[in-house]
Amino acid sequence: MSNRNFFFVILLLMAMAIPCFAQPAPVSNSSALAPTPPMGWNSWNKFQCNVDENLIRQTADAMVSTGMKDAGYQYIIIDDCWQVSRDAKGNIVADPQHFPSDIKALADYVHAKGLKFGIYSDAGTKTCAGRPGSRGHEYQDALQYAAWGVDYLKYDWCNVGTQNGPASYETIRAALDASGRPIVLSICEWGTNKPWLWANGIGNLWRTTGDIKDRWQGLEKWPDGTCCSHGFLDIIDEQVGLESFAGPGHWNDPDMLEVGNGGMTDTEYRAHFSLWAILAAPLISGNDLRTMRPEIRDILINKEVIAIDQDALGKEGRRVSKNGDLEVWAKELSDGSRAAVLLNRGASEQTITVRWTDLGYPSHLSANLRDLWSHKDLGAFKDQYSATVPSHGVVMIRIQP
Predict the structure, then answer these.
(1) pTM for this one?
(2) What angle do CA 260, 195, 116 make, to 5 degrees?
(3) How big is the CA angle at 340 (ends 343 and 243), to the nearest 5 degrees?
(4) 3-state secondary structure the chain
(5) Rg of the chain taking only CA atoms, in angstroms
(6) Neighbouring residues of 34: CB distance < 8 A, sequence distance ≥ 6
(7) Is 136 left (phi over 0), alpha (psi -120 to 50) or beta?
(8) What are the residues whose beta carbons fall under 8 Å from the beta carbon of 57, sequence distance 6 or more?
(9) pLDDT tens column, 140-167
(10) Rounded to whole angstroms, how far apart are CA atoms 326 and 136?
(11) Do residues 183 and 152 touch, judged by C-beta distance below 8 A?
(12) Residues 111-123: pLDDT tens digits?
């Protein structure tokens, strides 16, 4: 081979090799982790810091025995207060009095039930309850979560000082990806930094408002004077206009469910659950599954309503009409049908009408209707449908052309 040909071959081989070294770093596949809104249970709304391993084991048992697992609920999530300190190497330490068997054994128990396990931390130096946060320990904590078998991380936004929101959540997402275990990331920064504008590809769900409280309506300041906890209707109003930002793998999160915690009536809880389903919201229950009344169980495991939330199209519903206290919310479904919630916010029973043109259908279209709470077929209708809706209640229907 001549020198000229030799150098030509060397240059060719070098050119072929360059792309191998110029490949970009792997991108997160986090969007594949939650193709439909996550469903599960979280300890905070009912128990706050009164958590221990017995509660978590019993709740996992109850999720199976009550039929919630069969209805689609998967995650058992411990919220704040499970952690107490860091050891000499900086590893996060679970409270040995409340979790003596350690977190790995607890996760194994949950997994043995055919369920998934979730845990909580914070982007700041301390959690909202003053326990150790993850700032400066993100990769160390992510490796620990993976070793424990964590499937879901709720990541809060207390004690963050001047931290940058998007950068903080990008860091924990990268740490979770580097751990080698697929872990759903729930961004819990209360809509402070408008996460719907930047969190797709970082989190699988993101809070859109301040914390929900178990009441129909009303903002109330926290004990320290800051604003505010939200009633159910206040949360709903803040979802208007956000529907375009949600989809498979990335969901707007109007906060956890209060169904069954005692602050609202069963009629109001049906409204709460129906609106969350129309919004394609994560369905994270927050009541005591071990002692819930049959009426509460029936709300939480209504498979026809859950099917609306979990529809494969992944399209968040929206408010399509409003006449004072009378509203219609609607959601497009994967088979071309629609779901609609007729919501009566008022103090007396009212008639509410849903019009086909508000749903994107022509008025002459004949469609079959089904009531998803009474589980009854209502017959075929054209142009519109009217129903009597109780005070603080809903009628929820599926409209099938």
Answers:
(1) 0.92
(2) 50
(3) 95
(4) CCHHHHHHHHHHHHHHHHHHHCCCCCCCCHHHCCCCCCEEEECHHHHCCCCCHHHHHHHHHHHHHCCHHHHCCCEEECCCCCEEEECCCCCEEECCCCCCCCHHHHHHHHHHCCCEEEEEEECCCECCCCCECCCCCHHHHHHHHHHHCCCEEEEECCCCCCCCHHHHHHHHHHHHHHCCCCCEEEECCCCCCCHHHCCECCECEEECCCCECCCCCCCECCCCCCCCEECHHHHHHCCCCCHHHCECCEEEECCCCCCCCCCCCHHHHHHHHHHHHHCCCCEEECCCCCCCCHHHHHHHCCHHHHHHHCCCCCCCCEEEEEECCEEEEEEECCCCCEEEEEEECCCCCEEEEEEHHHHCCCCCCEEEEEECCCCEEEEEEECEEEEEECCCCEEEEEEEC
(5) 24
(6) 184, 204, 205, 248, 249, 250, 251
(7) left
(8) 106, 109
(9) 999 999 999 999 999 999 999 999 999 9
(10) 49
(11) yes
(12) 999 999 999 999 9
Relative to beta strand 366-371, strand 326-332 is: unpaired
Q: pLDDT value at position 236? A: 97
Q: Which of 78, 134, 66, 70 is nearest to 103 (CA)?
A: 78
Pairwise CA distance, residues 134 & 145, whole Å: 12
Q: Which two tokens stand for residue 118?
A: 């979730």
Which amino acid is present at 240? V
Instruction: Please tell me the distance from the alpha carbon of residue 210 to that of residue 207, in angstroms, as a whole number.
Output: 8
Residues sharing a CB contact under 8 Å with residue 271, sequence separation 6 or more, in sequence order: 232, 341, 343, 392, 393, 394
Question: Residue 32: pLDDT above 90?
Answer: no
Determine how many CB atoms are found less than 10 A away from the CB of residue 353. 15
Q: Of 317, 325, 308, nearest to 358 (Cα)?
A: 317
Give the confidence band of 3 by pLDDT, cuts at 50, 70, 90. very low
Residues annotated as catalytic are 156, 211
Determine the Cα–Cα distance for residues 156 and 133; give it in Å rounded to an integer: 9
